[in-house]
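Weekly structure sync - notes
Attendees: PM, LS, DV (DV joined late)
Agenda: review two folding runs queued last week.

Item 1: First target. Sequence and structure tokens pasted below for the record.
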Amino acid sequence: MGLPRIGFGGYFFPGLGGFKWPKFQGPDTIVQFIDHISYTAGKHALKFGGELHRNGVTGGAFGNARGSINFLDGTFTGPTGVASSQLEDFFAGAPTLASVLSGDPTRHLHNWAYAGFSRTTGGLAGT
């Protein structure tokens, strides 16, 4: 499982624990069916067709699934009025902010699309 992401705000310090990865994507699926039919008689032509298209994806962003704990300045204030530092808060076990993933972040998305067309040339009245 691993260590949660532990951050110390305000300093250029990357923190401890797991980074906000992995991010899983896929598998992606695309199903497409297209057909056109043409009929010609003399100067007259008729053409029609259609398309059916389905997209699907299963994926999830599992980054930060191990949770995160952040330590900022000033959780405790001493008798002299001086606020505690981030490192003091860390050793005291007093985070400013903490989060944990609950539930399943996996998403199953899909959509259907369809289209149709028809075209005539030469006129329908027999000209």
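Item 2: Second target, run right after the first with the same settings.
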Amino acid sequence: MLRRVYAVCAEREGCSVRKVNMTISLAFLAPDLVKAAIDGRLPYGMGIARLTDLPAAWSKQREMLGFPPH
């Protein structure tokens, strides 16, 4: 069911299902990591593609990026 929803979104937006998946995953980033990205404080070489592959748990996201735990 969810695959179909993503496919419909992709078709409507004129992009790939992969791009839809990547964009949705960005909505689950820890707020302090979003701020760090906006402020340009992410580790060198950290791109959007890597941010979309992070785990859902905010503590794990921070750990993987080398940010201190909250």
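Discussion on item 2: The chain has a mean pLDDT of 90.
Action: LS to circulate a short write-up before next sync.
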